[in-house]
Amino acid sequence: MKKLLIAIVFFVMMFGSINVFAEQTDPEYNTCISGDVVLNLNDDWQPSFELAIQHMLIPPDVTYIQVYANVHITGNTDADSLIVESAEFPSLTENIEIDDNGNFDQEVKIVLTGFSSGESDTINFGAYVNAKKGDKTVRVKIGKGKLNTDFLKNANNLIDQDSDGIINSRDLALLKQNLLAEYDEMGEQESINAYIYNEWYLKDFVPGDNGASFIAQTHLRAKIDATGITLGITNNGNTKTYEYSPSITGNTDQIVEFEGVVPLTQSSDIAASASIKAYKGNRDIELLSNLRARDSGNAIVGDLDGNNKVNSLDFMLMRKYIMGLIDRFPVESGFYCADVDDSKQINAIDFAYVRKYLLGMISDFPKSSNNIIPSTPIPPTSTPATPTPGTGMVTVYKVGGIDVKKNPGVEITVEKSSSNKIWVSAVTECHGPLYADGWAKTYFSLSGSAENGVDYEKIDFGYFWRIVGSNIFTPTGDDNPKEGFYITPIDTGSEETKDVEIYFGSIGPSSKPDAIIHLTKNTSDQNTNNN
User: Can you list the domains of the chain with their CATH numbers?
Assistant: First the structure.
């Protein structure tokens, strides 16, 4: 028997590093991801800028340079949805349309600087693509990253580049030439190729008077050409991070066991979450997944296919896994049940134990079969979280970036132009312990002399979803806007000032609005030049 074990160990040492993950078939993409979520994409950036106007509460308004990029994003995915967001302004997002074959081809405008960026010495040529599939999300950083530059300082102070006393298309062309020259010097984007998946195993779940306690394991399996990979596990507002260096072949195979709690004050069923990050130059990838609370079941150690018995089929699955011919087992409890010696690894020792069991040499495994999750997982619910009120939760309402609680009845004046959009938003912040996470409805009503659909673009919904806590990847209950919406003025040609009164809450207009937007006649005689 000792010789048999030595032979098995030697066989795995010789062939165990094969790890035949699914090979990428489209090497032309600069980002190739497979595993839990498939995402292959290219992003072609064309930097530019435009003159923008910051409308001040106290005139005069201020003209400034706003840098943006037209980004052509192409590729394919098996995700349910794709959203791209600016790295500098995360609230500015755009959906990427996916056809029936999983392909996408779209150009998006990504804003890189704003009014407050005028004195900045960097421009972040970066964005994030979020690919959501079921309860998991892959978040990919695209672009070249941050450029150290004096462009913004010089551009805003020296818009008249040829010093002729007039700001015209020649000045803007010279500025753009300078911007493109600096961007080209940044070099090429990195490419990254990754296979990542993450599974959860709830060993024990014990309800109590103040909530529930549990013991769980999470399994990280990856093959990646990045320089490093981290695993962060968050439970009840606390995060612990583990750092790993991939092997020479790029493989990472780790399992982490931890204890956690689910307090009664938590409204969602998410017991813990994992964030797996990999880095390579100006590229990085993050896989987000959730462990959902449920009662533990009675899976059988050694049963890798979920048929409630240990037989030769499980032995074949174990052999294929160790050789790298498969990367996961047919059921969610497979990895936990394959680790028969409870060493937090699947290797030749587990293989030998299963063989001895099938030969009748042992009657049980070192790890007990008690308190293991069921082989058929309970599907996650997509119902948005309803937060439980309590101390430490503060909802902030903003109109045009102004906190209306700190500035009740604030009045904002803008010219009637579709370029003067006013952002209306809300978020519930959880200070101290996390009392809730997910989404909640934010009701509002509009009133005043301005007519909906005439003086500003039609708004046909009475609420939007606001983030509660930090779990922004939990699905909402419908397609109403998330985080906020824009009030977009329409230039009707009238000289009459029209008012939009904004009231937050489900009761309806009160005696005093939370904010008032004054829509005035467009007095500008000069068209804004865009590049």
Answer: 31-130+142-184 (no CATH), 192-292 (2.60.40.3670), 393-520 (2.60.40)
